Amino acid sequence: MTPIDPERWNEVWAADLAVIQRLRDHGDLPHVIRDVDVSFRGTIEALRRLEFASSNWGFRVLEFVEADEDGQPWLFLVRSQTTDEEAIRELTMTYLQMEDSFEVECDGWGCEGQTRE
């Protein structure tokens, strides 16, 4: 895999830390496993290639949208994991590598906060 540009990493990781903080501010228990979704934009062809390879990173396809309200295709992937900083750091590295490998753009990740064991 190609190394991630440090400047790019810092920008993306800062945004992901903000998501983690919002979860914590609402009482999220980071050690609880839950579905975490990641969405990607790109050409239909690139997204289809990613769709078929996504299980290599432990993802399942949540939804493939060939044209949203703006006519843009989207791919929504999901995998079960925790939201502790280490797990999200690995998720971030993974989706950045997926971006580079498939020439797509990650639009971020999200999940429902888990406040109960």
UniProtKB/TrEMBL annotation:
Pfam families: RraB. Residues 14-111 form the Regulator of ribonuclease activity B domain. InterPro entries: RraB-like_sf (IPR036701), RraB_dom (IPR009671). SUPFAM superfamilies: Hypothetical protein VC0424. It comes from the Bacteria. This is Ribonuclease E inhibitor RraB.
